[in-house]
């Protein structure tokens, strides 16, 4: 099993959710986060004063999937989240040792 964490632009969340649902992903978690990378923030004007916004709003989605779903998930996420502009985000894939469904006690792929 693998865990995919993707940091995307907030306005792309619905498109990503729909694309993942279309390929059979049953569930995911989305969290509003703030961060920066090469984008390095931007300058804004507020009440006549200019200030730098270092941390930009993003959405982090997390999903745990079977190994055979990794590539389809990556393709689905990149396919709809890519705008071609800086700040499109990143995808991280890591190994998951164990999954337990709290309600039933099921473990492994059945618990996903």
Counting helices, strands and paired strands, the structural category is alpha+beta
Which term fits the overall shape?
elongated
Calculate Rg over CA atoms: 17 Å
Number of strands: 6
Task: Note poorly predicted spans.
Answer: none
Q: Major sheet: size, sense and barrel closure?
A: 4 strands, antiparallel
Distance between the termini: 9 Å
As laid out across the biggest beta sheet, the strand order is: 2-5-1-6
Provide a descriptive summary of the structure in words:
It is a single chain. The protein has helices spanning 13-22, 70-81, and strands at residues 2-8, 29-35, 42-46, 49-53, 56-65, 89-95. The chain is of the alpha+beta class and 112 residues long. The strands form two sheets. The chain has a four-stranded antiparallel sheet with strand order 2-5-1-6, covered by helices on one side. β3 (42-46) and β4 (49-53) form a beta hairpin. α1 packs antiparallel against α2. The protein starts with a strand and ends in a 17-residue tail after the last strand. The mean pLDDT is 91.
Protein traits:
112 residues; alpha+beta; four-stranded antiparallel sheet; two-stranded antiparallel sheet
Topology:
Elements: E1 2-8, H1 13-22, E2 29-35, E3 42-46, E4 49-53, E5 56-65, H2 70-81, E6 89-95
Antiparallel strand pairs: 1-5, 1-6, 2-5, 3-4
